[in-house]
Amino acid sequence: MATRLFIDGQWTTAGGGSLPTYDPATGQVIEDVGTASAADVDAAVGAARKALNDPAWAGLLPVQRAALLFKLASLVDAHHEELAALETRDQGQPIGISRQVSVTGAAEHLRYFAGWVTKIQGTTNPVSYPDTLHYTRREPVGVNALITPWN
C-alpha cells in the first residue's frame, strides 16, 4: 500500500516508481514509498479541483469548514502517541519532541486556522483619489501542487 498514491478517492499505482525511506536512527529501510509522475500530479490536481468545486465542499458555510478542522485536530489528539511514534521513526527526532512539538503543534495549528475561518472580515485600504470606487478582493489561490519542506 505504501507504494501507491491516493488520488480522487482511490489507491492508484505510482507512475514514478518508488523510493525507500530510511529510519535515520538505524539506517534500515522503513518502507518503499510511491513517487508521483507528472501524470499523477496532474490527476491529483484535477481531482482536487473537482473536489474543491463540488457542492459537498463548496456549499459548506465557513463555520461548517471550521468544525471539520476542529474535528481533524481532535483526531490528531486521539492518535497522539501513534503519530508521535511514526514521526520519531521517520525523522529520527527524540520522542519527546515528536510528542510535545510535532504532533501537539499540528493539532494546535489546525485549531488556530479553524478559529480564523469565522474571523476574517473585509477591509479596504483608503486611496488618495476622492470619488473613486476602490475595493480589496481576497480570494483563494485555488488548487496547487507543491513540494513543501519538512524540517
TrEMBL record:
Name of a matching Pfam family: Aldedh
An example Gene Ontology molecular-function term: oxidoreductase activity
InterPro entries: Ald_DH/histidinol_DH (IPR016161), Ald_DH_N (IPR016162), Aldehyde_DH_dom (IPR015590)
Signal peptide: none
Aldehyde dehydrogenase domain sequence ranges: 11-151
Keyword annotations of the record: Oxidoreductase
The organism's place on the tree of life at top rank: Bacteria
SUPFAM superfamilies to which the protein is assigned, alphabetical: ALDH-like (SSF53720)
Gene3D superfamilies membership: Aldehyde Dehydrogenase, Chain A, domain 1
Designated name of the protein: Betaine-aldehyde dehydrogenase
